[in-house]
Amino acid sequence: MINVIFTGLIRTDNRFKNSINDLLELRKKGLINQIILSTWIDELDNYQGLKGFLKNNNIQILESVPPSSCKGSFLHQSRSLHLGLDAIKDRDLMIFKTRADLYVEKIYLEKILNLDLNISIHLSHVFEKRVWLPWFEITKPFYLADECFLATYNDSKKLVNYNMIYDVHYNIDSGVSHIRRFVEPFLPVYPIFEVYLNYLGTTAHGTNLRFKVLNELVNDEDYRKFLKLYYFVIKNYFYIGLDDATNYIHFRKWSKSVFELPNSVEEAFDEKYSWDKSLGHIYSTNNKWINAVAGECNVDFSVDIHKLKELSSFAINEKNKAKKQRGFLSILLKIKNIFK
Known about the structure:
Helices cover about 40% and strands about 15% of the residues. It contains 13 helices and eleven strands.
């Protein structure tokens, strides 16, 4: 039996109702305990009849004021999940955190709920159990899926933080809201990841120079050390997707863009494995790849800070160059449209 928390905005009420109806069936089977929606005041008023539907089906509704004066949506996500967790009564049960605009097909949700998520007794227990996630980005440490996950109550609490250092200090571009959620619990045990945050957070995702930057990063010995430790963490503390299923989550385009990656890190970093080459993300959506490439890892490795500073400057400069090029092309397009 588990508890379920939906967080944030509704966006797609029909998809949300489909999820609720599935969960109600699973609740009758004794697999679901509490079902909670943690959203913002007045959000439900935008969807006629939805509040009544939820109340009639004994769905607990938490409505709160969203954070103000914050960059991005991460603090909104954290507050919504935080309030949902505070409302949990049986904290010995696992938590399935999800969103109203995401739908997991019921047969596969049942499979997820029955996974063995036990962690090796030989590891430092950052988590009580492995955290189930649908995917992870293979080129950028701790860029992990957060649209839905399955974790213990205590581990779910560890995935809530309000640390503003990611807004005012680290220079992290794509994936920062994901990274800041998942790296925090690991920093006390693997403090070397703070060096990664300081120097290797810029990867130029979403620019035409993304793979030029990635090639420079992956050719660096220290970057490969961080990747090796990242893969060690993924293999031992997380459970990725389902090995025998694809297209079972309905959410974004990437949810249906699944590639079988080659069992070589260097080969898998090819842009042909990106679900959208203009963005440059490369996702692994099951355990097969990580089990093939991850091995034992020396967690106390040293790095060349001078080289990392140079690598950081290169990545930032290339990203800024790409943004300027894009801005120039946008101006040319506007001029062309004027004289049509």
